[in-house]
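Project outcomes to date are best conveyed with an example. Our students and postdoctoral researchers have been running inverse folding experiments weekly, and each run begins with a structure described purely in tokens. The record below, which covers 498 residues, was selected by the lab manager from last quarter's runs and is presented without edits.
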């Protein structure tokens, strides 16, 4: 099975290299920018885990994010940036290679642990291209006093030497660097902000969640963690300035995927794939600009290479979205496959106002068991209890349905919360057919590996790991091994509400 699969992946990568861009309209194309106009820039990627555009500069009035707001005022803030997956390891596998995770066999969450699976040629990590061009590459651990990066290398493949070191201070004198700093603060469990607490009574929860004190408290904790995140990013920006690197460093801040809430992370709704994206390069990119251009996280790798004067390899499926060779998208694609032990396959295409979602496993409910979410998402436990009591609204009840629709269609201008599915309405048939065909082309042209069933042994392994972790957590909390929804709800009410 391994040999056959590897051969198919190589074929899929070649297919993607030749045709991946044809499903979206992309005027122009990536090419070499003039690298002779001065010193090559340092490049710093700052990634925060599980973060949607819930910053003050994006209009979230309850949070204070002065450092990211300042970064936005000195650079470009993108309002429509998206990841290609709503969970960490597939998303990282994509934005670190410039390739869809579905094209390179990296689409199942935390797959290939210990089996030595490597990227199909000619695909490489972005760090290899920078290293070949003379850059020092760093996976930053201590970014500033009190700021610890995770050093996360959460890829669904094995790489022998992904980075040169753990800080850009390890480079030779005058050597440019590419550094990636990953911050975990907005990942559960949340870190509350003692310096500026947020009143849960002021929080507005989306209509697909029950408006309860628990839901408000949980959402407020998430927003407070963003404020703590902002302070840490501020210290990193201060370090650049203190070391005289601010003017010569291209900073790209983004989330690895959307917020960690019930209908967000692991799902292809806006809450799962829409992210903040801020880019600053003093004197080389305009300041204080707000861009509504569609950007995929797939584009970060080729864009960073291009702005450094390095020709992006032709097989990359992302496009350059900044600089002299910038292209524009009219759509983005995203995919969800197995997350932890929970098997599913979902794909989406998003245009300006339209989102089309296809559920390839409609018989599996939204709430099929996921040990991670069941054990750490307070509102999920509450929704399960309220569902059993018949106390959810029709909009909230939809997420608890025993099966998913085969197709979903949303008008994001009229329905930003994606609560009114238009797929079955005759007046939207043309839109549905067009987006259905577009997704079909993308699946074929990019060699979507989700069509190949995952090794049952891998699924069985993660199911066993998840069950063991769930029982361990329930035992630690003093609950029964089954950890019923009522037990977990009582636990969360006591912990979060006192």
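After processing, the design step wrote out the following sequence:
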């Amino acid at each position: 099975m391994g040999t056959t699969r590897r051969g198919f992946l190589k074929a899929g990568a070649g297919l993607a290299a030749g045709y991946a861009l044809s499903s979206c309209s992309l005027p122009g194309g990536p090419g070499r920018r003039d690298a002779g106009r001065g010193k090559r820039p340092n490049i710093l990627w700052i990634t925060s885990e599980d973060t949607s555009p819930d910053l003050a500069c994006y209009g979230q009035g309850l949070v204070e994010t002065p450092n990211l707001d300042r970064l936005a005022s000195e650079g470009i803030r993108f309002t429509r940036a998206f990841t290609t997956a709503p969970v960490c390891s597939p998303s990282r596998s994509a934005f670190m290679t410039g390739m869809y995770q579905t094209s390179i066999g990296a689409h199942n969450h935390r797959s290939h642990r210990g089996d030595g699976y490597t990227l199909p040629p000619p695909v490489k990590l972005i760090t290899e291209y920078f290293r070949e061009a003379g850059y020092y590459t760093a996976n930053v651990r201590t970014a500033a006093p009190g700021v610890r990066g995770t050093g996360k290398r959460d890829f669904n493949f094995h790489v022998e030497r992904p980075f040169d070191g753990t800080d850009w201070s390890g480079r030779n004198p005058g050597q440019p660097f590419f550094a990636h700093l990953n911050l975990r603060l907005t990942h559960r469990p949340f870190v509350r902000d003692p310096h500026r607490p947020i009143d849960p009574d002021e929080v507005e929860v989306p209509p697909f969640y029950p408006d309860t004190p628990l839901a408000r408290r949980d959402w407020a904790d998430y927003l407070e963690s963003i404020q703590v995140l902002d302070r840490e990013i501020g210290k990193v920006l201060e370090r650049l300035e203190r070391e005289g690197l601010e003017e010569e460093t291209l900073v790209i801040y983004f989330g690895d995927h959307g917020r960690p809430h019930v209908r967000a992370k692991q799902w292809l709704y806006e809450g799962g794939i829409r992210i903040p994206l801020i880019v600053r390069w003093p004197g080389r990119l305009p300041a204080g600009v707000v861009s509504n251009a569609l950007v995929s996280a797939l584009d970060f790798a080729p864009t960073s290479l291009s702005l450094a004067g390095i020709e992006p390899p032709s097989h990359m499926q992302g496009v350059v979205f900044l600089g002299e060779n910038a292209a524009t998208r009219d759509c983005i694609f995203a995919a969800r496959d197995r997350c932890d032990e929970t098997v599913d396959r979902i794909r989406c295409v998003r245009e300006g106002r339209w989102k089309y979602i296809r559920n390839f496993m409609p018989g599996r409910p939204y709430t099929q068991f996921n040990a991670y979410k069941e054990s750490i998402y307070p509102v999920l436990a509450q929704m399960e209890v309220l569902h059993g009591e018949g106390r959810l609204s029709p909009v909230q009840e939809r997420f608890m349905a025993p099966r998913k629709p085969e197709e979903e269609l949303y008008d994001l201008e009229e329905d930003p919360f994606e609560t009114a599915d238009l797929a079955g309405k005759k007046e939207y048939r043309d839109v549905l057919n067009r987006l259905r065909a577009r997704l079909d082309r993308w699946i074929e042209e990019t060699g979507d590996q989700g069509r190949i069933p995952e090794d049952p042994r891998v699924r069985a392994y993660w199911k066993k790991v998840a069950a063991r972790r769930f029982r361990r957590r329930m035992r630690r909390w003093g609950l029964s091994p089954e950890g019923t929804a009522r037990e977990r709800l009582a636990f969360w009410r006591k912990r979060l509400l006192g």
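The longest helix spans residues 213-242. Residues 2-22+40-328 form a domain with the Alkaline Phosphatase, subunit A fold (CATH 3.40.720.10). The training component of this project remains on track.
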